[in-house]
């Protein structure tokens, strides 16, 4: 398979990824996504078609902008606890996680000539509800729990794995150790609430520092929070710990987690405002190399974000090619 890499190739610039797959499918496209588990769509022709249509929109943005693309598999809830709710046993989960990575690899083969550089990431999520801080997994328990899913990714054509919407330090440490045991590059994405803190009450600096001391991932991200909430978490000036953040996948809505959890309709905000708030984070996080969306976002938000970040880069560095110039 060759050397795996968790980052875009050197010189390719900021990599884009998709928006909020579950909220887009459910609220915008009318697709049934039980328990927010998009992986079940891989088991039907109609579901695979819906996923293909979804991802193709982001391929188009990558092609138009000249940016590399990170394809994230729809496997955020393809783990034992959520699988059990949906009638998937261990063998079923192994099959569907493998199928997900092959599905993403097929998309890469179909579009790599047009895009130029595409990474495939196996997505994992927390064992429990990502909006709950009620259960702190021990690193050893998290290691055993998440390793089977990571092993499937490592056995296939995934370039890396990314753990999204993580709330607990112990679970993050266990996930990183499990990925290392499988020889798979790994990124960890924490989520923060409207106050900029993790739902467990600790601040983002403490969480990243603690994980780095115990089991450093390849890099960190922050997801499932509005850019303004992320800005509160990272502060106004870059620091050693915040330089470890390479990716942002933000929500369109300014609502906190409690309100989002109770929502019965998608709050997609305004793409222009979302894009401006995302671009503002570049001043605070100079090492950002991956930009995408989470709940409530779709192609409109990502396209607006790509255009806004390109426009600002051109303003601050006259002569720098814009995304339009790179077409």
From TrEMBL:
Q: Give an example GO molecular function.
A: metal ion binding
Gene3D superfamilies, per the entry: Homocysteine-binding-like domain
Give the Hcy-binding domain ranges: 3-309
A Pfam family assignment: S-methyl_trans
- Is-annotated flag, keyword Hydrolase? no
- Cofactor(s) in the UniProt record: Zn(2+)
Q: Which PROSITE patterns match?
A: HCY
Task: For this entry, list what GO says about its biological process.
Answer: methylation
Q: Where does Zn(2+) bind?
A: 224, 294-295
Entry protein name: Bifunctional homocysteine S-methyltransferase/5,10-methylenetetrahydrofolate reductase protein
Task: Say which species the protein is native to.
Answer: Mycolicibacterium chlorophenolicum
Q: What's the source species' lineage? A: Bacteria, Bacillati, Actinomycetota, Actinomycetes, Mycobacteriales
């Amino acid at each position: 398979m060759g050397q795996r890499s968790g980052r875009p190739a050197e010189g390719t610039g900021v990599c884009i990824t998709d928006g909020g797959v579950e909220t887009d499918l459910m609220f915008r496209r009318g697709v049934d996504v039980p328990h927010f588990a998009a992986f079940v769509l891989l088991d039907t022709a109609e579901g695979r078609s819906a996923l293909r249509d979804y991802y193709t929109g982001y391929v188009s943005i990558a092609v138009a902008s000249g940016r590399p693309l990170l394809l994230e598999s729809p496997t955020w809830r393809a783990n034992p606890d959520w699988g059990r709710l949906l009638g998937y046993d261990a063998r079923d989960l192994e099959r569907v996680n493998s199928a997900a990575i092959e599905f993403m690899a097929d998309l890469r083969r179909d579009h790599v000539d047009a895009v130029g550089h595409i990474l495939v990431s196996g997505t994992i999520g927390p064992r429990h509800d990502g909006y709950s801080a009620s259960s702190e997994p021990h690193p050893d328990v998290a290691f055993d729990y998440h390793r089977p899913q990571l092993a499937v990714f490592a056995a296939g054509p995934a370039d890396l794995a990314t753990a999204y919407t993580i709330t607990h330090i112990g679970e993050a440490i266990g996930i990183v150790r499990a990925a290392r045991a499988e020889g798979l590059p790994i990124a960890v994405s924490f989520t923060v609430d409207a106050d900029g803190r993790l739902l467990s009450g600790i601040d983002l600096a403490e969480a990243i520092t603690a994980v780095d001391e115990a089991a450093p991932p390849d890099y960190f991200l922050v997801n499932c929070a509005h850019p303004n909430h992320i800005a509160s978490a990272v502060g106004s000036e870059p620091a050693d710990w915040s330089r470890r953040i390479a990716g942002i996948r933000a929500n369109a809505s300014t609502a906190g987690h409690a309100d989002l959890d109770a929502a019965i309709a998608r709050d997609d905000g305004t793409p222009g405002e979302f894009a401006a708030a995302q671009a503002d984070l570049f001043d605070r996080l100079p090492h950002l190399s991956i930009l995408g969306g989470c709940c409530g976002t779709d192609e409109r938000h990502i396209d607006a974000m790509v255009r806004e970040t390109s426009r600002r880069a051109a303003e601050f560095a006259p002569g720098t090619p814009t995304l339009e110039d790179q077409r």
